[in-house]
Amino acid sequence: MEFATKCIHAMGENDYTGSITAPIYISSTFAHPKLGDTTGFNYTRESNPTRERLEKLMTELEGGVDALAFASGMAAIDTVMNLFAPGEHIVTGDDLYGGSFRLFRSINAKNGVEFTSVHTSSIEDIIRAIRPNSRAIFLETPTNPMMEVSDLRAICRVAKANKLLVIVDNTFLTPYFQKPLELGADIVIHSGTKYLCGHNDVLAGFTVTNNKELAEKLRLLYKTTGACLGALDAWLVIRGIKTLHLRMEKHQENALAIAQWLKSQPKVNRVLYPGLPEHPGYVENCLQASGFGGMISFSVDTPETARQILEGVKVIQFAESLGGTESLITYPIRQTHADLPPEECKEKGITDCLLRLSVGIEDKKDLIADLEQAFAKAK
User: Fold this and answer.
1) Domain boundary at 223, 241, 259, which?
2) Please, what is the angle between helix 49-62 and helix 231-241, to 10°?
3) pLDDT tens, position by position, 260-313
4) Which of the chain's termini has less CB crowding within 10 Å, N or C?
5) 209/263 same-domain check
6) Catalytic residues
7) What is the phi/psi pair of residue 23, to 5°?
C-alpha cells in the first residue's frame, strides 16, 4: 500500500456499522462481558478504540511495531525520558525546540539524568560526547530553528556500536518525507499538533518504535502516567492525516519559492532552508529524506527590521507554532527559545534578527506579496 493510501486506509477495518469515518468513543470506561473477559478495552487512560485506530495508523506510516498517541508532543518526550534512570547520560542535539531543553534541564536533570548537547551534524562531536554511562542520542533533523541536517545512518551506526538508543524528533518532515526507523533509529517522536494534524486545532504527540521491548516499556509508562490523547482529539488527527501527503507537497512547493525570494532581499542576511542547494545539509537530506518540508528560518539586517516584519505581515500570522494550513511567522528568541540564556542563544545563532517561517498551503503568490509589503515597511 502506497503512503497516500495508507493515510486514508491504514487505521484498520470499519466497525460493524460500516461507518466510513472512525467513530468517536467518548467513554472513560468499558464494561466487561463477564468475569475474566474483556472487549479489549477497559479504561481510556490505557486504551480507547478511537485512539487505537490513530495509533495503528501512525505505526503504519512510520514503519514501526507500535505507536502511542499523547496529549502533546512534550508529553511524548517526557515519557521517553522516563525510560532512563538517575546517573544515565544522553547526548542531545545542540539545536532543539526550546521546550525540549526546558524539560531536560529543569525536570530530567533534577531527577538525575545527565545531558551533553552537541552539533549532531558532526559525527566527531557525537563520538567525543559519548560516556560509559551514555544510553541514548536524542536529535532533530532538520533542527529547530537553525535547520541543521544530521546524517541519521551514520549516527545510528555509532549508536549501535556503543549500545545506545537513537531517538529522533521527526516533526518537521513527518513520515511522508523521512522515516528514521528505516534508517536505524529506535524511537521516533512527533508533535502531532503540527503537520500530522495540520489545522492548528489540536494538541497531540506521538512515539513510534520498531522494538517490541521498548514498545512494552513505553506502554507501561503511558498507562501509568496517563498523558494520553482524548478520543475527540484523536479523531481530529485522523482526519488531518488523510490529507498529509497533499499538504506536505504544497508546504514544500511554497517554502522553496519563498526561500528563493528571500535570498534576493537586501535586508536578508541568511536563508536557512534544506531545499536550497547551497544549504550545508542539502546533499545529506537528499540521501535520507524524500523532501525538505515547509520550515524556513532567515536572518535580517537589524532587530528593527525583524519587528517591522512581524508586525507588518497580514496574510501570514505572527504566532508560535508550525505545520498548519495557515502560514505563521515566529520570533524564536522571544517565543520558542525564550527560556534559554541569552549567551547560549547567541552561540546557536538564535538572535534578535532571526525569524522562523512555517509556510502554509495558501497561494505562494499571496504569501510572497505579503512578505514584500511587510519588507517595504521596514526602513
Assistant:
1) 241
2) 40
3) 999 999 999 999 999 999 999 999 999 999 999 999 999 999 999 999 999 999
4) C
5) no
6) 45, 97, 169, 194
7) -65, 150
